[in-house]
Model the fold of this input.
Amino acid sequence: MNKTGKVPDELILKRLQSGGSLEVDETLAHLHRQVFGMTLKFVNKFKGSDADAEDVFQDAMVALYKMARQGKLVAGTNIEAYLFAICKNLWFKQLRKRHETVDISSELVKMPELDNLPLHSMLEHEQQNAFARLLQRFGEDCQRVLVSYYYDRLRMSKIAEMMGYSNEQVAKNKKADCMKRLKAYLAEAPGLLEVLKF
Amino acid sequence: MTSNDQHTIDEYLLNRLDATERQSFEQSLANDETLRKELEEHQQLIAAMGLIGDVQMKERVKRIHQAELGRGAKQPNQANLWKWVVAVIILSVASLGIWLMVRPKAQTPPQLYASYYKPYDLNFGSRNTDASQILAEAGNLYKAGKFAEALPLFEQTLSIAPSDSKARLAMGICQLELKQYDQALTQFSALIEAKDPLFGEQALWYSAMTKLQQGSTTEAKTLLVKMLTDYQTGVFYKDATQLLSDLSN
Done:
């Protein structure tokens, strides 16, 4: 942190890209303190409730984290401004979905990278619940292995260490086994497969 | 296919192979149809993991959000705290007295049905398939409360796409609205038996509603208990808890 209390963007980016769970949580908490207030004002100004602002902000933090982990955030990005831009774009998407006629296009920054992100709040309640239940059915080990590899983008060696497996091969076998279970579950649920196509 | 082969597919899709590995993999891909199919499947599974990860990450972010809001909230000081405690006790006693005087008498099943029932709010997006276009049209009628007109279109959708659970749920609700109780229960039962991941909970709720409308409170209760057990994070959890309590009074 520098003298003005601002955490340098390079550090925020590095923590989001490759930090451990604690570092990521601290970084997200910092971003919350810096950006949530303005998001709330923005959403309130354009026909949204406090709950809408909370939802949009949380989705934006998820999107930011995901982009960082996937290497889609470049060095030199002003992370706080970027997060706020995501919030504004997401709120615009929600307004369109609700067929609201508010024009906030002048407030938006073009973000094509957001177009292909299937965002949580864009899913219907039942779809969100179905995916949450799917997680519960998985068991803790499968959840951790798959989410760490595919979502948090950790290397297999790191996952083996985290899970206490004797070597990387054990982690790969576990991953393959868990994926087989996921495949079987999705085969029983064509409705969930449809969601993945949007 | 070994777990190592599968891992190579994943690493390719996550863009982690070096140039030589990538080139070699792409050559194999060009010559091997099974590998191409496997790759497609992995793409879909990775997309699923993305959504599952989102659900988990959102929970984590919510916890951070709550913690940050808590940090900003003012804590009452000790002196004020006592005033608050006394005020809360007085209010609680007063509320209990008022409630005892005006508490509602036990409601009959049809009255409870009228209090709790409303058609489920479904979204019917349109995709470019015949079944989806019919479904979108049926959806517009459903949303407008034109259940008799929507019903045959939901039937038509299901004849083209029998596994469309949204159409099945909507069809059941139309039949419930039109007092075709046995037919409605058939649709809901199909979803319950299939443990439908999208609408299993809703099917149980509307089955309970149908039973309530028919005056079968014991069966309605059984369905509600099953729903509360199987879907603890469901959209009808609060309503079902309250309804069970009302049915027990």
About this structure: The radius of gyration of chain A is 19 Å.
